[in-house]
Design a protein that fits this description.
With about 550 residues, the protein is of the alpha+beta class. The strands form four sheets. Strands 8, 11, 12, 13, 14, 15, 16, 17, 18 and 19 form a ten-stranded mixed sheet that branches. A hairpin with a 2-residue loop joins strand 9 and strand 10. Helix 1 packs across helix 2 and helix 12 crosses helix 13.
């Protein structure tokens, strides 16, 4: 039995007469009992008919008792009232009484609901649950729990507002402490009805509203449109134009959020002048859109070494033409994309090295966001095997400390980035002949402050600015009259090459100034990136 009360009867009656479906009647009665929505639509409709009939039978009996004490004979209409229920009259939007035998009760809303446009009728049953489950099975995702999300036409908010105004008077007269916010949303009623049906079709997998562990969230989205009533929202633009401003990313200004915002501003009086109350009955039901599956991104982090001086960090494309056949990110990503069965990836790292620069030592921290992975769970042994697969795929790179991390943990790689230090080794050429004593003073130079204009070589992709950077320490190893090794520990973000050759005076001071001769850099290696993330994993 539906847990409806006596005070709900006038609301139920008025909504049925207005053309609301059985489940929408429950919504406007603010019935938050989920099981009421899960029972079959036919049973719900019959119970509502019986609920109204009981009321009218009692009224008829009371009237008959009164008539027994009068001289006039009982009215024929009174005798018929005991068997009345509400069904749709042909060619009319109103529901009128008709005589029905006991047990012949039919849903009073066999046509499309004026409030939900059919979403809670035929589009909320076992047949649609089977369709959803078939799509999920075909996509072959790995998951333990599923979130069901729903996208509804914006005009449902307008129609819901109209229906609420239609019953508002009865609610106030019955002193019911309810407001429009207490009405159960179509989206919630749909989920309550469908979650169990979809779960059953998927072999009992829990279908829930949300998942606490975001790393495992698998979402199945269903959506509905209703072209016939798209114009229902348009009158709001004339009343609240500031709610419907176009943006670059949204072609349709009549979004659900914009419509809800406008409805909050519009007075009941203005609304009723522009929109019918109750809403008119549509000729067609909502159209179900394609079912979409999406698994939340998985993040994989680690450190990489780069041993090649002809390998860029990311694909090197100039004027639409690829210059190098591979890159660090592609060599790392390929095995991960295959194993996680992901649709794409985003690569990030703690800084970057030029194509001709090696990254040695403990390597450079990196992270990969794997988009819509069909498999998301790997144990430690499987992740270790993935690391080995990457390392065996090429001798140009090597990965260590590979691990699955959370989205929040990604922030550790970037936080305080400019306060971190990095160490380098550079092979220097000098135009003037030097000896060992000419370069030893560099080791005594500490905390050397630089002013670096954006280098000419990166000016096409970075804004022009002067950046202050610090070289903390330097040490040297003399090789011959024109060559020496220079080790530097610097503030992260320092342009090392520009410090060496001066970049036509754009970096001040520079090594040319310090040695009083032209200098250039022949080789550069990154020796360490002092970021304490991700956590090291013992080999």
């Amino acid at each position: 039995m539906l847990p409806l009360k006596e005070k709900d009867r006038p609301i139920v009656k008025k909504l049925l007469e207005a053309g609301c479906c059985a489940r929408c009647v429950l919504r406007f009665c603010c019935l938050g009992v989920q099981s009421a929505y899960r029972q079959s639509y036919e049973d719900t409709a019959k119970e509502l008919c019986a609920f109204i009939s009981d009321s009218e039978n009692n009224e008829s009996q009371d009237a008959a008792v009164l008539e027994q004490h009068t001289e006039d004979p009982p009215s024929k209409k009174m005798k018929m009232d005991a068997a009345e229920t509400y069904v749709q009259s042909e060619g009319d939007s109103a529901v009128v009484p008709t005589v029905m035998e006991e047990g012949d009760a039919k849903p009073a809303d066999s046509d499309v609901c004026v409030a939900c446009l059919g979403v809670l009728q035929e589009l909320c049953d076992k047949a649609y649950a089977i369709k959803i489950s078939e799509v999920v099975k075909a996509e072959n995702y790995q998951f333990d729990t599923m979130v069901l999300s729903v996208s509804l036409p914006a005009q449902l908010s307008v129609r819901e507002h109209s229906c609420w105004l239609h019953v508002k008077k009865e609610v106030r007269e019955k002193s019911m402490c309810l407001d429009k916010d207490d009405v159960i949303q179509v989206k919630e009623a749909f989920k309550w009805t469908m979650q169990g049906l979809v779960s059953k079709e998927l072999g009992g997998v829990p279908v829930v509203t949300k998942i606490s562990r975001q790393t495992e969230q698998f979402e199945v989205g269903v959506g509905f449109t209703h072209p016939e009533t798209d114009s229902d929202c348009h009158f709001l633009a004339g009343i609240c134009s500031d709610c419907f401003r176009p943006t670059k990313n949204k072609q349709n200004v009549f979004t659900r959020m914009a419509v809800v915002k406008a409805l909050e501003k519009v007075s009941d009086e203005k609304f009723l002048k522009k929109f019918p109350c109750p809403p008119t009955r549509p000729a067609s039901k909502c159209i179900a859109q394609d079912v979409h599956c999406l698994h939340v991104s998985v993040f994989v982090a680690g450190r990489y070494n780069k041993f090649s001086r002809t390998l860029p960090q990311t694909p090197w494309v100039i004027d639409g033409e690829r210059r190098m056949e591979s890159s660090v990110e592609e060599l790392i990503a390929a095995p991960l994309l295959s194993s996680f069965r992901a649709e794409g990836f985003n690569f990030s790292s703690s800084g970057r090295e030029d194509v001709d620069v090696r990254t040695l030592g403990n390597g450079r921290p990196f992270a990969l966001e794997l988009l819509n992975p069909h498999r998301a769970r790997f144990n430690k042994a499987e992740v270790r095997q993935l690391q080995e697969t990457i390392n065996q795929s090429s001798d140009k790179i090597r990965v260590r400390d590979l691990q699955i991390v959370s989205r929040d943990a990604m922030g550790h790689m970037k936080e305080g980035e400019e306060d971190k230090t990095k160490s380098y080794t550079a092979l220097i050429w000098t135009q003037k002949a030097i000896d060992k004593d000419d370069i030893t003073f560099l080791e005594e130079t500490k905390e050397l402050k630089l002013a670096q204009k954006t280098p000419l070589r990166v000016l096409h992709r970075r804004p022009l600015a002067v950046r202050e950077r610090v070289i903390h320490t330097m040490s040297t190893r003399f090789l011959d009259a024109h060559h020496f090794h220079l080790k530097l520990r610097t503030q992260a973000g320092t342009y090392i090459k520009e410090f060496i050759h001066g970049d036509f005076g754009r970096t001040k001071p520079n090594l040319c100034d310090l040695l009083k001769t032209e200098t250039d850099i022949l080789e550069l290696d990154v020796e360490s990136v002092d970021v304490d993330w991700p956590p090291s994993i013992p080999e």
